[in-house]
Amino acid sequence: MDLENKKLRPSIKPNSKFENDGYTLEKAKDFKRAFRGLGTDEYRLIKLLSEHSNSQLQDISKKYSEEYNNDLTDDLKDELMGSFEDLCVSLLTPRRLWDAQYTKKALQNIGTNEVWLTEIICARTAEEMEDLKTAYAEIHETPLEYMIKSDTSGPNQKLMLGLLEGKRSQSNEVNEAEAEEDAKALYDNGEGTNSDKNEEVFINILVSKSWCQLRATFNQFEHIAEMTIERSLDNQFSGDICTAFKTIVAYARDPLTYWAERLHSTLCGKDEDDESFFRLLIQHSETDLDSIKDIYDEIYEKRLIEDIKSEFSGCVRKLLVRITDPTSSVRDN
C-alpha cells in the first residue's frame, strides 16, 4: 500500500459558510449567548467548537475580543470546569501553540510520557519542526533543544535531538540496495555483534530515512536476522530508548494503524489516560481522524464512537463524539 500518497480524511473540516458577510460576528455573538443567563449553554459551545476549523475559530475569537473587549478563552475558563473546560480550551487554542504546550508537558513528565514526545516530533517535516521550535520558544522563552538537553540523557537525548533536526527524507522512492545496506548495519551493530551495541547507528537511520525507505529496511532486516526489527529492539534495548525506537518503527510500518491502536490503548486499553486520548483525538481531527476511524473499526470490530460513549458521559462525551463525527446530533449523544 502506498501509505505516503494515500488520501487522508479529517473529521473536522473548514465550515463552508465562513466566507459569508457577517459570519464571524454572528458566531462571536453565538459564543456570548452561550454564556448568558443562569449556567452555560454547553450544547451551543459544542456545536460552535466542532463545526469550525481551528483557523476559523481564531478569526471568531478575534472578532469576539473586538466586540466584547474580552478574551474568549478566558471567558470559557470562567464558565467551565474539569475535562470539558480542558477540551474546549484545547480546541480554541491556536494549533501551533497547543502543540508547543503539549511538548512542554511531555518534557515535564519524560519518565511516563516519552511516547508523547516521540509522537509529537517524529512525524513532522522539516518545515513543521521549525514551526514547533519557534512556537515553543515564543511561549516558554526557552529553546526546545535546550529543554530536551536538560530533561533527557544518553541515547534517548541523541534520538530526540536527531528528530528535532527535521532531516528525514521526504522521498517516496525506495532504494532497495540502500535498504539492504542499512539493514545489515542495524544487524551488525545490534543482534550480530558480540561487543557493545551501537545505538548511534540505529538513531541515524531511524531519524533520517524516509518512511517508505524504513519499511523496506525492516523487510530486509527480517531476511538477514530471521526476526522482526521489533523483536530485535526488545532483545537489545530497554527503557525510554526502546520505547522511542519502537514508536518510530510502528509509525513507519503503518501510520493509520499506529494511531488507531494508540487511540484504543489510551481510551480503553493498557495505556488508558484521558488526557492522552484527548490530545490524540484533537491532534488528528483536522488531518486524518476520519481515515483512522475506518482502521479502528476494522481492528477492534467496534466503532470508535461506541467506545467513546462507553467510556465518557455528559458534555465531555458529547464533545468527543462531535469531534469524531461533526455531523452527529449534539443532543442525541
TrEMBL record:
An MF annotation (GO) of this entry:
calcium ion binding
Q: Which SUPFAM superfamilies match?
A: Annexin (SSF47874)
User: GO CC annotation: what is one?
Assistant: vesicle membrane
Is DNA repair given among the entry's keywords? Answer: no
Q: Which residues form a coiled coil?
A: none
* Spans through the membrane: none
Q: Which InterPro entries match?
A: Annexin, Annexin_repeat, Annexin_repeat_CS, Annexin_sf
The answer to whether keyword Metal-binding applies is yes
Q: Which UniProt keywords apply?
A: Annexin, Calcium, Calcium/phospholipid-binding, Metal-binding, Repeat
The text the record gives for the protein's domains is: A pair of annexin repeats may form one binding site for calcium and phospholipid.
How does this chain assemble? Homodimer.
Q: Which family does it belong to?
A: Belongs to the annexin family.
- The identity of this protein, by name, is Annexin
